[in-house]
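Hi P.,

Sorry for the delay on this. The queue was packed all week, but I finally got your sequence through. Input first:
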Amino acid sequence: MIGTALRVLGSRIRGVFRRGRRDDQLSDEIRAHLDLLAAEHMQRGLSAVAARAAARRDFGGVDQIKEAYRARRGLPALETVGQDVRYALRSFRKTPAVAVTIVLVLTLAIGATTTVFSVLNALAFRLLPVPRPQELYLVEQAGPGSVPFRFSFPSFERVRDGVGGTLAVAAMSRIQLVETSIDGHRLDARRRVQLVSGEYFDVIGSPPILGRALSADDNRFAGRRPVAVISEAMWRRVFLASRDVVGRDLMLNGAPVRIVGVAPAGFSGVWLEAPADIWIPLAMQDEVRYAQNYSAHDGDDLKPWPPQDSIEWLQIVARVSSPQMAVVQGPLSNVFAGEMARLAESYTGAFRQQLLRRRVALTPVARGLSTERTRLTNPLVALLAMVTVVLIIACANAANLLLARAAARRRELAIRLSMGASRGRLARQLITEGVLLVAAASTLGVLLAYWGGDDLARRLLGEAPGREPFRSLVDGRVLGFASLASTITVLLFGLLPAWRATADRSADVLRSDSRTMREGARLTSSKLLVSGQIALSLALVTAAGLFGQSLLALTRVPLGYDPARVVTVKFNARASRYTERDLRELYRSLVRRVEGLPGVQSAAVSTCPLAAGCRDSTTVTIAGYVPRPDEEIRFGEYSVGPRYFSTVGMRLVSGRAFDDRDTDRTPLVAIVNETAERLYFDGRSVLGQSFSFGDQRIEIVGVVADARVNAVQESPGPMAYYPLAQRPTRFASALEIRMSGVPASILDEVRRSIHDAAPTLLVDSVTATARQVDDNLRRERVVAQVTASLGLMALALASFGLFGVMSYNVAQRSGELGVRLALGATPSRVLTMVLGESLRLAVIGVALGVPAVLASARLVSSLLVGVAPTDPLTIAMSATVLVGAATIAGLLPAWRASRVDPAVTLRWE
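Then the structure:
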């Protein structure tokens, strides 16, 4: 039976492709039958003409027989679809303006929606391009006072050995930018390097496409030539995909390595915004001068880190399958508890108890690690909701255009109905036209998203050193989303016109005069769609106003320092191979050289540039303060040089600033901010008080005003500033310079002066501090700009929709308007009547939109600063803008209505 069905299907498929030949054979066969029948009638005495006519009567309808035969031999459904498509294309050629307008409107809407989703997909949904990414976890801590946890290399080894046989683990550092040379030639840009343990590629599950991966033997570097694995992207970009790359030598910050493998295509590590170019063994930490993202409670960070148990700088990634999860929890918890107990030996009091109560946690990393995911997901979800609203508005606009087009084709459709076409057949034809329009718009929209997604990601993330925007690839999930959006689009705007166009009785339409026919009832759907567009537009215009006010509020937030006329130089002294003995002279030389430049008032070094998000912090114990149970006191920290506060414009509230008396031979001192004074000193005079971390006691010698030193969006927390001279192991990374004039005018001179003072110093950037502050607001600025664009798009679409509906209404009511004018109505009266109808639609839309605005307030409340999501003034101004736009959109149709000639109209009627 199945064989018979397959043979029939094969015959039908062949029938589609051999249609011409089979039609000719059928015609010949029918002609032969007719000739035989005619011959029989002629033998009975009929003439040739009468015999031929009788034969046709006996045989039946030739065309009907041909159609029945074709239906049995081919694929009639497919052929019907082809007919619908060809007819739709011919109809578009008759009205190209309508088709082009619908495609453009839907392209922008579908493209914008797919663009935002592609970025959200890359950030929040896309899995790492490795086998079984859902099995990858980060080993972290949970419990009271938990903070992002790092392991020392000996601690990692104990974890690895303690869970050996039950859990595969590897260690990795954060990404570092290094100067890279090949065959003595320095590359034009520094490369992103990650230090990993030899087990890394085995745990991740990404075997190299050339050479070998790192191995456990590479965890130790004892005189052997160190090795490296490079990314496939670097292999193609730098080595032009040469097959002999294995064995080539690189210099990383002056340290030699040999390439032993090339990672698979698409894999660039687990950090989303920092794709690695090169992976090297952890043992090379000191050789490449890695010195970031670490804690050193009792270690010497100027010596190699791998042997030191008291320098935590590594993250542990593990591969755990679902059946393994219950098995590994016990051994892993026991090992982690031992590590916490070991760490707690260096502390006393409440913090020690917190450490002992912390437990291990496995955090999924199937989607990779990202510093921006938490910060950007909510804004992208809000933007996705907004562009979806724009898509709905665009669908309503397209539906209105198709309703008007269908109304203009009513007589054509009525004639086809009267000739035997079914309503389902006509509805399918109209839906096919809608599907073709959406298919064209979807294709263009996906192409727009391919370009726009990367641009949006780049604008959100900027171009910070060591970080690059993630690629918002148009993958299967994005294409699926675009297909879903296209399907919903067809349902939203394609079905209503098809249903309305086939709902009229053909006899009534053919008896009616299309010129004089009243269309009031037919325009009800269009008017409702227009009011709906205005309601949705109100939500978007209000959102644009709210985000604009929020951005303005952030630009007016008191920073606590004065970035105007300040230049920030970011440099890397450790990677430049400066030693502790060299640092003091380096700092003095830099400050002395730039202060000698014309227009420079003062300069000072610090461990972190302003508004750069460093967030270094230390757990401290405050003399005289009794912490609450499970309370951990953490001070944010900056180490700064003399004249730092006056250089950056921070106000000293009391006490003194740091100066040359604060050296490594004098008692340790610190300056705290007002928040620390308010929280922990309970009205006591803070000067002369002390706090400590570990066994070091620090005396407070001053109080400085609160400042948003980490980020503009972050309210100041407790801060402690230390003299850099008393912390010789801390490397400064910023030089702040106060100018008397415009900073941009001296940037080149600053670069030259620093090069003259320290030719080997790696300088990351020389920028105006105000620009760094401005970069802090990139997310808010992009969201405000995109929201403003969406609000303008929605406003334009709603106005265009209102204009189209009112223009069509006036054209259909020309007879009625001519009669009114003939009976004595003045042109101004007609103009007011039509314009009033436009305003009535706008007011209905605004009334429907206000509840939508209030209901969506929760969606954007967490993204706003300094303005309430239900701000009545913003809603009122948005409603005024919409009503004003509706007035402008209705003026031209109203003016045309007032210019109708009664004589011409009455002669037509």
